[in-house]
Each structure stands twice: as structure tokens, then as C-alpha cells.
Design a protein that fits this description.
It is built from 4 helices and no strands. By secondary structure, it is mainly alpha-helical. The mean pLDDT is 93. The chain is elongated, with a radius of gyration of 17 Å.
């Protein structure tokens, strides 16, 4: 069972839906059907949503692999929580006009650090299980 992954993926999906509704709301407000129509707020919202969609799935996949391979729940939960925190910080930094680059950078550091840790955890745990 993927109980921890289910919680992590659900929380990440809630964030993604919220980011998507922000794009939809700004599209309606600005009467823009495709692209940003040159609207800076809409462009930021589109990129916040897109960036989230580009990175979160890799984290979810790696969290699921770790859990499926029998890692302890806490070893799955900690990087999952870090991924959520990183994605939240990044989205907040993207959507505050003017963009808060320090929050964007911090969010990406959390995200890249978490993805790198998940790579190492998956490789290490897999080797441990294979050789142990």
C-alpha cells in the first residue's frame, strides 16, 4: 500500500488545483483564452502552475518508489513533506508582485534538494534491499 504517498500526492494535488484556479480566475478577469495576453499577473500564475506541474510528478514518483520498496514510513514522509514545503514556497514567490526571487530560489533549493535526496534514498534503499 502507498499510504504515505497517497497523503503526499493528495496534498500536492490540492496545491496544483489551487494554482490552476488562480490561472482560470485571471484568464476570466482579463478575458484571455490562450497565453497571458501580455498580463504580468497571469503570466506569473501560468508559470507558477507550470513549474509546479514540471517538478511535482518526479517527486511523487520517487516517493512512491521508496514506499513500494519497503522503506520506513518516516523515510518516505520526510522528503515528501520537504517537497510540499519547497513547492509552496516557490509558488508563493512566483505569485507575489513583484516576484520575490528570494522565495523562488529558496523554493527551488528545497525542491532540488528533495529530488536529489530522493534519488539517493531510492538508490541506497534499493541497493540495501538487493544486497541485504
Amino acid at each position: 500500500m502507498l499510504l504515505v504517498t497517497s497523503v503526499i500526492a493528495s496534498l500536492l494535488t490540492i496545491i496544483f488545483v489551487k494554482l490552476s484556479f488562480a490561472v482560470i480566475g485571471l484568464r476570466r478577469k482579463n478575458k484571455v483564452g490562450l497565453g497571458s495576453g501580455g498580463n504580468e499577473d497571469l503570466e506569473r500564475a501560468i508559470r507558477a502552475q507550470g513549474n509546479f506541474a514540471e517538478y511535482a510528478p518526479f517527486g511523487i514518483i520517487l516517493v512512491a518508489c521508496l514506499e513500494l520498496n519497503g522503506a520506513p514510513w518516516w523515510l518516505v514522509a520526510i522528503p515528501g513533506i520537504a517537497l510540499i514545503i519547497g513547492r509552496l514556497i516557490h509558488a508563493k514567490g512566483m505569485n507575489i508582485p513583484p516576484p520575490d526571487f528570494s522565495q523562488r530560489v529558496l523554493g527551488m533549493r528545497f525542491t532540488f534538494g528533495t529530488l536529489t535526496a530522493l534519488i539517493a534514498l531510492n538508490l541506497g534503499w534499493s541497493l540495501y534491499r538487493l544486497l541485504g
